[in-house]
Prior knowledge:
By secondary structure, the protein is α+β, with helices and mostly antiparallel strands. The chain is built from six helices and eleven strands. It folds into two domains: 4-57; 65-198, Umud Fragment, subunit A, CATH 2.10.109. Strands 2, 3, 5, 6, 7, 8, 9, 10 and 11 form a nine-stranded mixed β-sheet that branches. Strands 1-4 form a two-stranded antiparallel sheet. The longest helix has 13 residues, at 45-57. The model is unreliable at 82-86 (pLDDT under 50).
Amino acid sequence: xxxxxxxxxxxxxxxxxxxxxxxxxxxxxxxxxxxxxxxxxxxxxxxxxxxxxxxxxxxxxxxxxxxxxxxxxxxxxxxxxxxxxxxxxxxxxxxxxxxxxxxxxxxxxxxxxxxxxxxxxxxxxxxxxxxxxxxxxxxxxxxxxxxxxxxxxxxxxxxxxxxxxxxxxxxxxxxxxxxxxxxxxxxxxxxxxxxxxxxxx
Length: 201
């Protein structure tokens, strides 16, 4: 098909983008992925198929449906997993009406992540997919994806006068607490609230 630069130019034409970062966003990939293509001097054929679909339809999703980003990272429901990358690896399609009317959320604030571990079982099984609504903080008890001490976790959080209680739905895991000082530190960050989950039976 020509040199890498020619292939890249064709992808940008199909997706109506000018910069690599915009191309990556249109394809649901990270800019690092494009760098990897350049390093290997190869762009997978399925990327061109996706770009042609975008060119023809303007979106990969049918009318009335939305693509939700799927972040393929290790969200641990056990003891937590180090976050090394948060790369948009693919997209999943949901009904816009379901998200806006049934769940009551803005689709622009929603993304999907996998759950690893059994500490939130039976509510969230290992390998289940959670839909997360991005929030800057939290005002009610619920199940949240949060980062603490370099680890990304999904747990049930409860308000305490002096901090937060972290609870696992699996009784085999003991609850623990995050002090008010830790909550206010740079080591703690609420990513979003879990508002839906899907899993294999």
